[in-house]
């Protein structure tokens, strides 16, 4: 925010911010009984994506960068699995997860492409 660094210009970073915001929108709809389980996990995983992209971008070596990008991609898989649980528990209708699902897909693809480059 205060440091104007390159990661803020990356499409994957911008997509991850949208993913984070969409995740937080879903968190508001989940029951309080999930505060210390599903809500906590979804919050940590969605934050992890953004933080690992920014931290990875600050690394000098490609090996180091990719390690953080792989962690971020793993966190996207966690978010996707949280969505699966949310639907199976009937907390939210599948169509209410469409926006989040689109950001899951786009951010995963962008990260995968970044890892290939």
From TrEMBL:
**Pfam families this protein is in?**
23S_rRNA_IVP (PF05635)
The record's listing under Gene3D superfamilies reads:
23S rRNA-intervening sequence
The identity of this protein, by name, is Four helix bundle protein
Q: Which organism is it from?
A: Elizabethkingia bruuniana
